[in-house]
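INFO batch 0412 | record 1 of 1 | parsing
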Amino acid sequence: MIPTSPTRARAPRAAGSPSFEAQRAALAGVVAIPVTPFAEDGSVDPDTYRALLRRLLDGGITTLTPNGNTGEFYALTPSERRLVTELTVEEAGDRAAILVGVGHDVPTAVASARHARDLGAQMVMVHQPVHPYVSQSGWVDYHRAIAEAVPELGVVPYLRNAQLTGARLAELADACPNVIGVKYAVPDAARFAAFARDAGLERFVWVAGLAEPYAPSYFSAGATGFTSGLVNVAPSVSLTMLEALRSGDYPTAMKVWEQIRRFEELRAANGSANNVTVVKEALASLGLCRREVRPPSRPLPESERAEVAAIAAGWSI
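INFO prediction complete | emitting tokens
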């Protein structure tokens, strides 16, 4: 018999502290990352953004992440990030849980998290620290400073660091019980399976942070939700995959995978250079927003736009 790693027990919750059950349930689904549309003058386009949010909500999406990478988080100014958060909370109302992306230096991340809390958002996602020198204990310190500043909010680290151990995540959650989920975005299903079990498989909600292409393999190892940029274009496609994965119907999930494969390959090409670009191009082809992105992203050349439009037109939208 093959021995299994012990599952770390969930730390006891202090009396009177929030349970975060609603937030945990919201993470176990399609976690949509809305694009941030720009107007002709290059500014954020509030009316178009609201319309895109309504389309997601009307399509059945119940968890939204403003200021995610598909929303060009790192290309937005602080005031634009606040605006996007405000628009999302206002437009969603009680129709969706809001998971606000925060990051940069600790004071900036804390201020953004408190802003999200004051608006009524339920959770924050902490972007992977971009500093070139990140120690494992420093990773814990960074996230602990943010989580402790907003104990009322569920906190979801966005984890892209393959070197981080599950024990470090467990250490963070021991100190901060509001760390309730993980957006795991290391492209290695075996590493994910080991990491989740070392940290505590049942202790956190595990969100496949590399979207639909990785969702089937990550669900087989314990994930219960996945992020999506594609959902901006075709909410029904993402929800079809979710329902198949929830029911253990992997053949159906893989049919969806085949349907979206080329679209996601275009997004992932050249180190994901066109990750956001392809999504916005698809939306532009449907007349839903402008195709413009901000540096370091760049619009698709004319020669590649037709393929994206053809893919989007072929989906049941």
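INFO post-check: The radius of gyration is 19 Å.
INFO record closed
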